[in-house]
Description:
Order of helices and strands: HHH
Structural class: mainly alpha
Largest sheet: none
Distance between the termini: 98 Å
Shape: elongated
Radius of gyration: 35 Å
Amino acid sequence: MTERDEFPREFDHRWADAAEHKEPSARARMLAARWKDNPPGPVPFRAGPDPVAPRRSSWVSTVVVLGCVAVVIVLLGWAEMRAYH
């Protein structure tokens, strides 16, 4: 066993943070190369809201739901009436 292997190996964060040169990530290098010839345009911090389609009246939804309930009640009554004949 050599002298190097006698001590447990661990990563020294202080040593890494004190490095004079830090290499950029692969994505940072790729974007830098892409933007060298074709820089991106300005982008706002927050985009404006998308145009919202006008909502239907809440009455329309209420009428549709109540109409469906009425149809179900009528169909159940009709089915029960037929079962007695």
